């Protein structure tokens, strides 16, 4: 079970090693946009949308890694004061009854929109923008799948820990 968890973790780490550079790219492109607009009077909708695409990819594809590193948003009302066994039970409950089902529902309901977007190769958000909205919409199922995989890894680790105690 731990080998499976490590394999799933490797997926999240691999994706994170690529998308972490998106943050730097976003900063540099945004800086270029500001300099271009206010110093040279040049503007590009496509370049502006590029920042949007990078931002969306960074957060949607990085969610699994965030879960792996335990840096996601957590409601600490009970969790912060709980012992290790109670925390493990809360985590198992959260993965089994909240995270995985919600990702499955989101995947199910978003799939027709993504499929239709690919069928027509949906064009830009704005006139002159990037002609690839279908790629951005594809981040939704990718987000769901990556979170489900990382959730399964967390569950496997929690079950192994539960058996040890």
From TrEMBL:
Main location as per UniProt: membrane
Location within or outside the cell: Cell inner membrane
Alphabetically ordered keywords of this record: Cell inner membrane, Cell membrane, Membrane, Transmembrane, Transmembrane helix, Transport
GO molecular function (one): transmembrane transporter activity
TM region positions: 21-40, 52-69, 90-111
Recorded topology in the membrane: Multi-pass membrane protein
Family assignment from sequence similarity: Belongs to the TRAP transporter small permease family.
Function: Part of the tripartite ATP-independent periplasmic (TRAP) transport system.
Quaternary structure note: The complex comprises the extracytoplasmic solute receptor protein and the two transmembrane proteins.
UniProt-recorded name of the protein: TRAP transporter small permease protein
Source lineage: Bacteria, Pseudomonadati, Pseudomonadota, Alphaproteobacteria, Rhodobacterales
């Amino acid at each position: 079970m731990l080998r499976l968890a490590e394999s799933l973790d490797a997926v999240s780490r691999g994706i994170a090693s690529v998308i972490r550079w998106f943050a730097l790219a976003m900063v540099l492109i945004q800086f270029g946009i500001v300099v271009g607009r206010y110093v040279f009077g040049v503007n590009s909708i496509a370049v502006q949308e590029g920042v949007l695409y990078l931002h969306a990819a960074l957060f949607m594809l990085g969610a699994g890694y965030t879960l792996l590193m335990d840096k996601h948003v957590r409601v600490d009302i009970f969790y912060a004061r709980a012992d290790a066994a109670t925390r493990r039970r809360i985590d198992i409950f959260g993965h089994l009854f909240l995270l995985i089902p919600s990702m499955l529902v989101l995947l199910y309901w978003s799939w027709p929109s993504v499929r239709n977007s690919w069928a027509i190769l949906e064009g830009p958000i704005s006139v002159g923008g990037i002609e690839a909205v279908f790629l951005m919409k594809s981040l939704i199922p990718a987000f769901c799948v990556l979170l489900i995989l990382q959730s399964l890894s967390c569950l496997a680790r929690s079950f192994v820990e539960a058996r040890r105690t």
